[in-house]
UniProtKB/TrEMBL annotation:
Protein's recorded name: Bacillithiol biosynthesis deacetylase BshB2
Stored InterPro entries: BshB2, GlcNAc_PI_deacetylase-related, LmbE-like_dom_sf
NCBIfam families per the UniProt record, alphabetical: thiol_BshB2 (TIGR04000)
Phylogenetic lineage: Bacteria, Bacillati, Bacillota, Bacilli, Bacillales
Cofactor field: Zn(2+)
Cross-referenced Gene3D superfamilies: LmbE-like (3.40.50.10320)
Organism annotation: Mesobacillus boroniphilus
One of the record's GO molecular function terms: hydrolase activity, acting on carbon-nitrogen (but not peptide) bonds, in linear amides
Length: 222
């Protein structure tokens, strides 16, 4: 993993970062690289309410806000931006406004690396809209001055259409931090982690591969 000047991570929901890139984030922070996480929503429409349930539709936004802060703390992120959009509505926001917001973050922070979702290959409409806004913002920058753009993709056809990941980070050295970040989002992850407990304890190969490897595609600008 290269030492970066600054890493900007942009996702729409609390826990998007934990599952997909928390090991990469922790690794960059351990190398002394500043990381900014811009999270568009508080995941207000999340389906899970804890196990056993401890949240409801009214209390979930505040709970997920705290969970996001706890996850950021677990990873060592000091610059967490909560952008105030509503869950499951990002796809309906004005595209120019979203692109300009991403451009303002890039101008302010001057990152050498931006991490987001790969548009067309990230399943959820909020994921798609967020990734597309970041792509449009980066594309406006002259090619010689653009930050690197590493994208997370997990649709069923992503490997078939994009090829194998361009980058695979072995984050096993910080796997405990990744698990702590996942646990921090407890309203959404407790049931999943309970179901995974035996596999983690037994170091099931598939489970450990999922934990220890984080995959990215470099965005292919036309």
């Amino acid at each position: 993993m290269e030492k970066e000047r600054h890493v900007l991570v942009v996702f729409p929901h609390p826990d998007d970062e934990a599952f997909g890139v928390s090991g990469t984030i922790a690794s960059h922070i351990n190398m002394g690289t500043p990381v900014t996480y811009a999270c568009l929503t508080l995941g207000q429409m999340g389906r899970n309410m804890g196990n056993p349930p401890f949240a409801n539709r009214e209390t979930l936004p505040a709970i997920r806000k705290k969970e996001l802060k706890d996850a950021a703390r677990a990873m060592g992120i000091n610059d967490l931006r909560m952008l105030g959009f509503r869950d499951k509505t990002v796809e309906f926001e004005d595209e120019n406004m979203l692109s300009n917001l991403m451009s303002s973050l890039i101008t302010e922070l001057n990152p050498s690396l931006v991490i987001t979702f790969y548009p067309g290959y990230s399943v959820h409409p909020d994921h798609e809209a967020t990734g597309a806004a970041v792509v449009r913002a980066v594309e406006k920058i002259p090619e010689a001055d653009r930050p690197k753009l590493h994208c997370v993709a997990f649709s069923r056809n992503c490997v078939e259409e994009l090829g194998n990941p361009d980058i695979v980070h072995d984050i096993s050295a910080v796997a405990d931090i990744k698990l702590d970040a996942i646990r921090a989002h407890r309203s959404q992850t407790e049931l999943m982690l309970e179901e995974m407990a035996d596999k983690l304890k037994e170091k099931d190969p598939k489970t450990m591969a999922w934990i220890n490897n984080e995959r990215f595609w470099t965005y292919k600008f036309s």
